[in-house]
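Minutes, project check-in

Agenda point 3 was the complex the collaborators sent over. CS summarized: two entities, 660 residues total, and the question is how they sit relative to each other. Sequences were read into the notes so everyone works from the same version.
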Amino acid sequence: MDKKVIVALDAMGGDLAPVEIVKGAVDAVKELNVDIKLVGQQDKINAELAKYTYPKERIQVIHAEEVIGTDEVPTSAIRRKKDSSLVVGLNLAKSGEADAFVSAGSTGALLTGALLIVGRIEGVERPALGTCLPTKNGFTFLLDSGANVDCKAKYLEQFAKMGSVYVENIFGMAQPKVALVNIGAEKEKGNALTKEAYELLEVSENINFVGNIEPRDIPFGQADVIVCDGFVGNTILKLSEGLSKTLIDIIKEEITAGSYKFAAAMLKTPFRNVKKRFDSDEVGGAPFIGLKSLVVKAHGSSNARAIKNAIRQCVLFTEADIVGKIKHKL
Amino acid sequence: MDKKVIVALDAMGGDLAPVEIVKGAVDAVKELNVDIKLVGQQDKINAELAKYTYPKERIQVIHAEEVIGTDEVPTSAIRRKKDSSLVVGLNLAKSGEADAFVSAGSTGALLTGALLIVGRIEGVERPALGTCLPTKNGFTFLLDSGANVDCKAKYLEQFAKMGSVYVENIFGMAQPKVALVNIGAEKEKGNALTKEAYELLEVSENINFVGNIEPRDIPFGQADVIVCDGFVGNTILKLSEGLSKTLIDIIKEEITAGSYKFAAAMLKTPFRNVKKRFDSDEVGGAPFIGLKSLVVKAHGSSNARAIKNAIRQCVLFTEADIVGKIKHKL
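CS then shared the predicted structure for the full assembly.
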């Protein structure tokens, strides 16, 4: 067996911490070729670990006294709380004691801390947050989904390259199709940013650029990687979540309103299947790509399965040497 | 009865022109306090008009030989095709021979032509395209939904004022709640544009600014008017269309895949109701606001009902003197 990947995991971040986080770590060491460093308040972590039978040598508890809340201002929280699970975990990734770091805690603090502590790969201007956006037949990898709200065209070109490497290696898609999110299919459409980005992407080497994708077509999944600035990306991501929820609510409302209760009862399974197709736990988190180590932002509501899947992502990422491949591609 | 409103209508624009456009005009004069100037190739228009019984004096045919296609470059099409239904119709709105102009033709040509020919209200920096976005309990008026892809903060403040006047007068909502589309609820969140726009909106007089709205919350309809740049607005609009369609497809797929055919048959009515709640024909078009006359972009696939509702919008707009009220509010 290869050398095991070591993942540092923030035991204190997320709505269901530490219970589900610790359970995710236990499940991960049982199923994956990984060792875990669980970072946080050791009494709480040990109390959770005591519930399970697992290979003890593969989970190490690293004590960190402080916790950064989701309501704290990222920069000052990172500077002030040196002994927080988030800062201690990021330092493990920086020093090489861990290959990657996963946290379901504050997005802002994680992104800020990752940039300050782990640092960018040489040549990467802005690391990007990637998200697997569910589509009709699978998913599209969207970046940037919120880390960089104001972008230059050059950043978008780098997002395209990093996204291609990621999707190729993590999901095994050869020559992934890369599209630019734009309001119009033709090259000359869009705003100042997308017009300039199109020019760069068109002549960019090592990516399979297929042109613009209109927001209307995103849910049909015609591209494997889609790039845009973080404001637009976050808008796409969050609107998709809100709209899916609303539509399903409305459909259920209409069904239960009339004399369709019998039909509604029969439809539990199809509705569950629809929900599953849009299930973010399956992927288990958004990778922050372009840093010297992988940092994964797990959803705030992550359960054990989501955490395990985020860890799986770290294992694949490290084994495939994505950092090396990004350096090579830029 | 008041003086009748006169609406110029592009008989040649849209996928279902001239058949459905002419039918929409006939329905409008029967139901509304309006006279129509139908602009386009008179032989074709007269052949359609011959199918109906209606008060002849209330529909006038204005011949225009040329048609601008949706694939033409807007600026050159407007300059070159002086005798197109679109240019002739816009000139009627400019000269005051019509109070408003409705077209289901090329969006780009209509917006460009409206700016060049009809012109802006004094003080309006950028007219905005407004859209009624369906929400869980009604709709939200979104502007700009695609006319201005690169915006300054000042434009967004004007969109908020114009949107408020529109919603108050057309839909009778007093003190409409205005929100800024932003990726984060707090004032300090967002990109350079939204941060600056927030500062302006916060102290802006005559609007009921309620702060940021996150894209996730848009479908729940917590604001009456939402403002953003045209790139983000068009993304919201088109992604909503695409995602609604995809989700309904997926749900139907799941229902018909299993042994749920019986349930599916029972669900035709609820599904039709859901579709109706998201029906754009009900509103009948996107008003281009901030011009000296109202110009309405009807959807390319508009049927007679959509056209009639677009005309109704023109009647309300003119009777309420929205141009005067916008001047007063800026």
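Noted in discussion: Chain A has a mean pLDDT of 92.
Follow-up: revisit at the next meeting once the mutant set is ready.
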